Amino acid sequence: MKEEIIDKVSIISVEPYDPVVVKNIPRGWELIGRGNFAAVFTHPSLPNKVVKIYAENKKGIEEEVKVYKKLGYHKSFSMLYTFGSRYLVLEKLGGVTLYQAFIEGIFIPKSVLDDVDHAIKYATKQGLNPTDIHGKNVIMLNGHGYIVDVSDFLKPYKCPKWSHLKRIYTLLYFPLYKLHPFSIPITMIERIRKSYQFYLVISGFRKKQQAYERNSKK
User: How far apart are CA 194 and CA 104, in angstroms?
Assistant: First the structure.
């Protein structure tokens, strides 16, 4: 069944730091997530599983498979079932992303952040470098947190995204939400995301990231 979507769907990365563009989704398949490198789908014939397919113009699936093999089983990460040249079949983790929670006004308890911190420590002990952890790559369910994208865990550079999100949570989100629950309009949160992307450029992080990508292609 998974071969049907792999053969028919079109997934292209247009902008390197924006979600991929997805077209021609076969009937019965549902697109549930888009990252900068890949898209994630579900189908009724694959209960409790998702199929992650890399964009036609992006590489990196071999590294992601290595990461999942190093992680083994841990409650805060998905499990890898099988994989091919452009796809992975992974355990489906329920819940909403922190990005969705901000937009929908769903409270994010501190226990979610604590779970992610514990998962980061576990991955580090396995010889990995947990990188690119942010609001779209973390989901929560029943007060627990899960990391759903590990594709950059073999990259050598230090990533500030998770520490910045925790700082915003502690200084702004939690105190304000305790006073009065609120949601953030998607237009505003997208402006914040774009502004943060600009910050990553002027801070020098993108330069380090791009230098690594160039060197890895040599």
Answer: 20
pLDDT tens figures, 161-208:
999 999 999 999 999 999 999 999 999 999 999 999 999 999 998 888
Write the secondary structure of 34-72 as one string of H (helix), E (strand) and C (coil): ECCCEEEEECCCCCCEEEEEECCCCCCHHHHHHHHHHHC
The single-letter code of the amino acid at 198 is F
Full DSSP string of 125-160: HTT-------TTTEEEETTEEEE---TTTT--S---
Q: Which helix (H) or strand (E) holds 214?
A: helix 205-216
Report, as an integer, the average pLDDT of 14-40: 91
Sign of the torsion angle spanned by Cα atoms 75, 42, 104, 172: positive
